[in-house]
Amino acid sequence: MSSPLVATYSIAACDLNAGQWGVATQSKFLAVGSVVPWAEPEIGAIATQAYANPRYGPNGLQLLREGFSADEVVERLTAADEERDHRQLGVVDSRGGSATYTGSACYAWAGGRTGPCYAAQGNILVSEATVDALAATFEGTAGTPLAERLIECLAAAQAAGGDSRGQQASALLVVERDGGYGKLSDILVDLRVDDHERPVDELARLYRLHDAIFGKTPREEWVEVDEELAAELRERLARLGYEGELGDALFRWAGSENLEERMDGIGAIDPVVLEELRTR
């Protein structure tokens, strides 16, 4: 058997209202994020594991681009694979259709659950409770940003037993058309924990950092920069060595703190940026 054994649990999912697709996974397998998650905005998301066939990722996305449903993608990928009995696969398509596949030779416990906009699966698990937790958590967190939902799914699955061999690595991939850095990338979130005693907890910590830098506070919650606040900002920036015109000084400081994605003029300020400046 030439393929790597990726004994793991994962969930491929989408939020059609937000235009986001993603995959989250955890495994007792080094750098699991390099194998399992695949996604393309407005096309779909794929998780490939067990004796993983990494070509399921790009090949499956191509089939989704051609208009095949999640069920049809699973059928075509596995039918063409002589080692299908050792594979596990989850697919969500552009319409939120979902399918999961577990080959008959996957190590117990192995199986999957599907529902609108998600496919959850796992192998070499303590029990089916792990996959049940993935499904129940996704269904119970509607309205929460997709990345946060997927992390909550992983945490619930781990609490329900997780991979019977233990923990090692985790990953989160979420895509959205022009939703990434500078609106010039489709990658909204791409975080990996390659080797850690508590990879899901570490993934959650990294996501909090990511959200602080790249997240977006709703514009209606921004703080108006009146004369009093402008004076405060100038004073604080000057103490940090950023002098000159307020807009320029604030943007230079924000850039040095990797907060430029939260800047948009000087008429109002993102409260996350304001709080960060006030703590300096």
Which superfamily, in CATH terms, is the homologous superfamily of the largest domain? Aminohydrolase, N-terminal nucleophile (Ntn) domain
**Spatial sequence of strands, sheet with the most strands:** 8-9-2-3-10-11
Largest sheet: 6 strands, antiparallel
| Beta content | 25-35%
The residue ranges in which pLDDT falls below 50 over 5 or more consecutive positions are none
Number of strands: 13
Instruction: Tell me, rounded to a whole number, the average pLDDT.
Output: 96
Approximate shape:
elongated
CATH architectural category of the largest domain:
4-Layer Sandwich
Coarse structural class? alpha+beta
DSSP helix count?
8
What percentage of residues falls in helices of 4 or more residues? 25-40%
Indicate the radius of gyration in whole angstroms: 21 Å
Tell me the domain tally.
2
> What do we call the CATH topology of the largest domain?
Glutamine Phosphoribosylpyrophosphate, subunit 1, domain 1
CATH class division of the largest domain: Alpha Beta
Helix-strand string: EEEEEHHEEEEHHEEHEHHEH
Ends distance: 55 Å
